[in-house]
Design brief:
- This protein has about 300 residues and is mostly beta strands.
- About 5% of the residues lie in helices and about 45% in strands.
- The protein has two helices and 20 strands.
- Strand 7 and strand 8 form a beta hairpin.
- The two termini are about 20 Å apart.
């Protein structure tokens, strides 16, 4: 029997719980009442959430949902904000795989303009959850975007495809957070719109209860895979607590049925402030990992399988 140290467990109300030794670290939320799916919580070594739902001070930023996928201009349609009718829906799950070293989920997401019942494109998402030797949480994400038409333009913008809204206490403005990139630059003015292989957001996290309540330091590093188009990307980072690699910052991207767009990212929820040597090692290993492949399974009672 396969070890189930790592599990991807479906839950009621359209959620999937990612657990290690029975402890939840990440949860995937994809209910039809949502404008788009998202991961919340995303917990570090202390098992406290390192992300939050929405902006700490701006209600018009409620589209900032922890860790989410979006894009500002898909053939001119805004999938980033909540102002229009565009939305992203999970069409189906393909695979939940438990294991001794990681848990993997594969799903199909449809990007709808809100008018045509046929989606503009499908996003095949593979999410792999494992632990770093330091006790940190690793979430590897691979998205393959395939249009329903022959081709589809993903226009130039700073907004998309992946974004992370940090916990209030980790924010540089609302908390005591620090933004750092792989070149050693620090702070929004130095990193905003600049190219980098990875960006880290670290700061205070409150743990414990009552008289034992105290602050420790944790953070999240977001890694861009070197095979992504337009790499290394420019980064949209803000002192108010969010970061994201801008895949279309300098120019638009074209995805087609013949050559779908594939983007790979990795999130590392770690203890303490950023450790550049640890991150550089993680980046090197991530860049050497081959793509995941989702295919029809020959195993009894199993429709789909994910492998490298």
């Amino acid at each position: 029997m396969q070890s189930s140290k790592f599990q991807a467990l479906p839950q009621p109300q359209s959620q999937v719980s990612f657990r290690v030794d029975g402890i939840e670290k990440i949860r995937w939320n994809f209910g039809t009442e949502l404008r788009r799916p998202f991961f919340y919580p995303f917990c570090g070594p202390s098992n406290e959430p390192l992300t939050r739902m929405g902006h700490p001070g701006a209600p018009n930023h409620d589209h900032h949902q922890s860790i989410w996928f979006a894009h500002h201009k898909v053939q001119g349609i805004d999938f980033w904000s909540n102002n229009g009718t565009a939305h992203i829906r999970q069409k189906e799950w393909l695979c939940y795989r438990d294991g001794a070293d990681e848990a993997v989920m594969a799903v199909n997401l449809d990007w709808h303009d809100g008018h045509n019942p046929q989606p503009l494109m499908t996003q095949e998402l593979v999410a792999g959850f494992r632990m770093h030797k330091s006790g940190g949480t690793i979430l590897e994400l691979q998205s393959t975007f395939t249009p329903t038409s022959k081709e589809l333009e993903l226009e130039q913008t700073n907004f998309g495809f992946l974004a992370v809204r940090m916990a209030k206490t980790i924010s540089a403005y609302f908390g005591n957070g620090v933004i750092t990139d792989n070149q050693g630059r620090s702070g929004e003015p130095a990193i905003f719109d600049q190219k980098a292989d990875w960006v880290d957001y670290s700061g205070g996290v409150l743990v414990g209860n009552g008289d034992n309540r105290r602050e420790i330091q944790e953070g999240i590093t977001c890694f861009n895979h070197q095979a992504n188009p337009n790499s290394p990307p420019g980064w949209h980072v803000r002192e108010d607590g969010w970061m994201g690699p801008s895949a279309c910052r300098e120019q638009s991207l074209l995805t087609s049925q013949e050559k779908p767009l594939r983007l790979r990212y990795l999130l590392f929820g770690h203890a303490g402030l950023v450790d550049i040597s640890v991150n550089d090692e993680l980046a090197e290993k991530f860049n050497r990992l081959p793509d995941w492949i989702v295919r029809r399974s020959s195993v009894k009672h199993t429709f789909w399988e994910v492998f490298r």
